[in-house]
Amino acid sequence: MHIIYNVLFEMEINCVKQESHIKQESHIECDKNFSQKSNLDSHMRTHSGEKPYRCSQCEKAFSRSNQLKMHLINHNGENLNQVEKPYECSQCDKVFRNKQYLVNHIRTHTGEKPYQCILCNKAFTWANQLKIHMRAHTGENPYKCNECAKVFEGKTALAIHQRIHTGEKPYHCSECPKTFSNSSHLKCHMRIHNGLNGEKSHQCMHCDNTFTQKNNLTVHMRIHTGEKPYKCNQCENAYLQNRQLIIHIQTHTGEKPCQCNHCGKTYSHRSQLTRHLRVHNDTTYQCTLCNKAFKNKSYLIKHTRTHTGEKPYQCSLCEKAFTWDNQLKIHMKRTHTYNETSTQNNLLIEYSYEDKNWAEFISSPKSNLVG
């Protein structure tokens, strides 16, 4: 779902486009546009199937030179130069021409992370990883996309992003014909084939939440510990995740990189653009039991409970059940935290959350409630 969401979002971004994507026969092949002819030429190979870059060792062919370079790593180890490699890893078959390359490689086996951030204590295997990480604190984004002017902290992030413009998808699923622009997208996809969707082996020691990936558990644990390692260098705000900090920094810079291609409005973050796009989207979710319609599927699901009587939110102290989660929150606060107002709260619970007098009822004085 995450993959589809990202692709749909990128399609909505209104980029500066100059070079038309046209076949030799002068009819449009697809809607992609490019500011540089070299990027257009590379992209056209996705339609023509041309693969001019051929491996001299196994005769595999590729549409782009960097794909061939990545492939050659399988034959040549971690260095592409055809030179002697006297430094061999004792834990795997890889060999290196430089001792320092071997030292760096061994950390992938030992898990050693000698490069530590002085601001948030996060540690890294390589010095370059720390250098890129520090940009999250400084707000520096030195790598700029020449197609749409987006900026990135690292060269790798820019290279991955540019595949959106070129259409390149170098990561192939070994089980089905699907291809992906990002290795992490392929890993997520492989869970479908490997049956990992239901398996969540990383469990939180403080609550019942479980996660398929350890780093997701690490982020979740900060909710319990209160740790907020990502600090804004322009104010005192701190955040659980780096992406939250990046969004926050835009409040200082005024940057709004997400543009609606229907009306030109701009937003700081993709979630804001997604919400806005519902204004242009005619899709509605209609209740089959009454005539009400909703823009959001989750709103329809919640509404349906008024017909079915389903009450999935149960109080752990008195076992009362509620239709919506915020009803349970109100119940917990007013009934179990403030016992002297229990009469008022019991009355509150009897009302439907959708009752037109609900807001007035909550704000009414206690004397009016009990008559």
List the helices and strands and how they pair.
Blueprint: H1 2-12, H2 37-48, E1 53-54, E2 61-62, H3 65-76, E3 87-88, E4 95-96, H4 99-110, E5 115-116, E6 123-124, H5 127-138, E7 143-144, E8 151-152, H6 155-166, E9 171-172, E10 179-180, H7 183-194, E11 202-203, E12 210-211, H8 214-225, E13 230-231, E14 238-239, H9 242-253, E15 258-259, E16 266-267, H10 270-280, E17 285-286, E18 293-294, H11 297-308, E19 313-314, E20 321-322, H12 325-337, H13 342-350, H14 358-363, H15 366-370
Antiparallel strand pairs: 1-2, 3-4, 5-6, 7-8, 9-10, 11-12, 13-14, 15-16, 17-18, 19-20
InterPro entries: Znf-C2H2_ZIC1-5/GLI1-3-like (IPR056436), Znf_C2H2_sf (IPR036236), Znf_C2H2_type (IPR013087)
Family: Belongs to the krueppel C2H2-type zinc-finger protein family.
Domain C2H2-type: 24-52, 53-80, 87-114, 115-142, 143-170, 171-198, 202-229, 230-257, 258-285, 285-312, 313-341
Overview of the molecule:
It comes from Meganyctiphanes norvegica (Northern krill). Pfam families: zf-C2H2, zf-C2H2_15. This protein is mainly alpha-helical and about 375 residues long. The chain has three domains: about 15-195, Classic Zinc Finger (Double Stranded RNA Binding Domain, 2-Layer Sandwich); about 205-280, Double Stranded RNA Binding Domain (2-Layer Sandwich), CATH 3.30.160.60; about 310-370, no CATH class. Helix content is about 45%, strand content about 10%. A two-stranded antiparallel sheet has the order 1-2. It has a two-stranded antiparallel sheet with strand order 3-4. The radius of gyration is 27 Å and the shape is globular.
